[in-house]
Amino acid sequence: MDRKKVKYEILKVSLFIALVSAIISFFVGEYIPALKGIELKTIDLRFNYRGPVDNFADSSKIVIVAIDESSLDRAPHRWPWPRSYYAKLLRNLKKAGARVIAFDINFDSPDKNPEWDEELRRAIEEAGNVVLAGREVKGTTFKSKVIEAKNLLRNIFIGTKGSQPGIVEVLRDYDGVCRRYVPVFSAGDTIFPSFGLAILLLYYGLTIDSVYDFPSKIPFENGYFKVGNLKIPKFDDKTWLINFAGPAGTFRYISFIDVLDDKDFKTNDEIKYGDINTFDDPEFGLLHDEVFKDKIVIIGSAIPEFKGELGDLLPSPFVRDESNLMYGVEIHANAVATVLEQKFIRRTSGVVSFLIIFMFSFLSFMLATSVRRLRIHPEFIVEILVVLSLILLFALWSYLTILAFENNFILPTVSPVLGGFAAYLGSVVYQYLTERKQKKVIKTIFSYYVHPSVVNQLISNPHLVRLGGEKREMTVLFTDLWNFTTISEAYPPEFIFNLLNEYFEVMTKIVFKYGGTLDKYIGDALVAFWGAPIHYEDHALRACLCALKMQFELEKLRMRWEKEGKPLLYMRIGINTGEMIVGNLGGYGRFNYTVIGDSVNLGARLESINKEFGTNIIISEYTYEKVKDFFSVREIGSITVKGKTKAVKIYELIDVLTLDKKLVKVME
């Protein structure tokens, strides 16, 4: 098979295996939770590699007011605080110019002092820009009015004029990490915005009707959530991916008590040491620093655990100080900031992801196949190189996914690598089947030409075989029988065939014994050569030993034939060494592994010239130069080959000169 056909076959196989690998990897990656979890983990790695956004706390439109340890220690009342605290907080934030005020706190039961509840309700109405946290109650059928669901959302203030409800449940992925954000929750025919979406609706002056028409589900338009004129790219049908600005503490945190601490409020510190007034002090107060001016203010817990009430730590993609925990209030803040900053993280569509997996699988297969074609031994080194090259390819793809993520774009990671691995396995199977086919071809072709042990060697080392034409220095041997035509005319055909078979069987075994390749039988003639398919540096030496052994064994045959009354056969041999072209010639399913060239023609000429000199074995000067230290010879003279002007010296090969170690090794 020529190189173009081989390349075309490999291309077809690679496309097929890449397609199968891509299909398997795409669906396995999409529907097996464990692999989806790994894909999500790679997103975490990309976040941490990218790192936090520079100076985000100063530039962000979101401020977190935290119920922290300092607030609990400095507040005059013990926890739980009276609702009047929250009313005062609302009024101070409104005075400071906060654009949206969102409570990530559930007021699920009345205060012990009803007047304080009423005070907070009035403060909410006065502010007119408040988001109240609600808890989703699944399996409950609500009527179309939100106000009627207030008790079921576990917040007694939901429905208060000037407020917007928002469900604070945060979605966790398979591994418990919060990465995605749900824009809406529904119960029966009622749809509620999530906490973050409620904040955005107030910020942009929109209502829930600008997103939904009751009781319809969320609009699906080219992979986006529609919020007024905003389009938020979907991560899946129900969520968008939060573009976390950084690990916990990336947003600006202000203690709850510092916002309360105006001239009319006495903290525990002020009771002991005098007024400080962190909120409205003219020189350093938060009111005059315009910290809250036109900002979204989210109030929530910043205490890991407080009697099981305020604990609100959740796993996030970012890791800081060996922990990925983040307060829920900051997760909501990140979700809102993703939309405010228009830093949406987009992912590839299903079609594009499949094409990426297909191309990755194709490249993996082609890379593995190409590396395996390198002639490096032992073979396990090649396989190590294959694995290393695939690891390099995987690393390069991982680097590209990181670069894409820095531009807020997610490329699939696990599925392409899975596809590449599947393609690698496909390349292993393909190599096995190819080698099996190759071994079968080698066995079919060379079992006629060389000894079975040589065939096995070729099967174990197929790189030694080149079936196409190749120029090599080799030695060729021609034999013919004296007066065989006269003998064949005197005996029946069956007798002649049996005699020749007996003769050729012995001669062929000798050729194989000395590592020769049987070229062909031509009537009563035999042609063999040394140096291919396995190359021997001592090819001339082997051919000469073979020739002497042939004459010796033929003499033994004659002694037996004489006793049996059979005709006696005598053989002429010609040997030449030189450059020849060796390869598989033929067509239409019939091939012959043979040698051609001027050096071959000279070998044939030497065989026939034995007639003129009455010799049995003639070698050329080229062979003589290779073996002169091992054999006794007699110089006969020179001949000129037809078509050549330079005469060639010829020698009669007589016997072994000395039992040199090299000779003994070959003879064994």
UniProtKB/TrEMBL annotation:
<comment type="similarity">
    <text>Belongs to the adenylyl cyclase class-3 family.</text>
</comment>
<protein>
    <submittedName>
        <fullName>Adenylate cyclase</fullName>
    </submittedName>
</protein>
<dbReference type="GO" id="GO:0006171">
    <property type="term" value="P:cAMP biosynthetic process"/>
</dbReference>
<feature type="transmembrane region" description="Helical">
    <location>
        <begin position="409"/>
        <end position="433"/>
    </location>
</feature>
<feature type="transmembrane region" description="Helical">
    <location>
        <begin position="12"/>
        <end position="32"/>
    </location>
</feature>
<dbReference type="InterPro" id="IPR029787">
    <property type="entry name" value="Nucleotide_cyclase"/>
</dbReference>
<dbReference type="InterPro" id="IPR001054">
    <property type="entry name" value="A/G_cyclase"/>
</dbReference>
<feature type="transmembrane region" description="Helical">
    <location>
        <begin position="380"/>
        <end position="403"/>
    </location>
</feature>
<dbReference type="GO" id="GO:0004016">
    <property type="term" value="F:adenylate cyclase activity"/>
</dbReference>
<dbReference type="Pfam" id="PF00211">
    <property type="entry name" value="Guanylate_cyc"/>
</dbReference>
<keyword id="KW-0812">Transmembrane</keyword>
<dbReference type="GO" id="GO:0035556">
    <property type="term" value="P:intracellular signal transduction"/>
</dbReference>
<feature type="domain" description="Guanylate cyclase">
    <location>
        <begin position="475"/>
        <end position="607"/>
    </location>
</feature>
<dbReference type="GO" id="GO:0030313">
    <property type="term" value="C:cell envelope"/>
</dbReference>
<keyword id="KW-1003">Cell membrane</keyword>
<dbReference type="InterPro" id="IPR050697">
    <property type="entry name" value="Adenylyl/Guanylyl_Cyclase_3/4"/>
</dbReference>
<keyword id="KW-0472">Membrane</keyword>
<feature type="transmembrane region" description="Helical">
    <location>
        <begin position="350"/>
        <end position="368"/>
    </location>
</feature>
<keyword id="KW-1133">Transmembrane helix</keyword>
<dbReference type="Pfam" id="PF05226">
    <property type="entry name" value="CHASE2"/>
</dbReference>
<dbReference type="InterPro" id="IPR007890">
    <property type="entry name" value="CHASE2"/>
</dbReference>
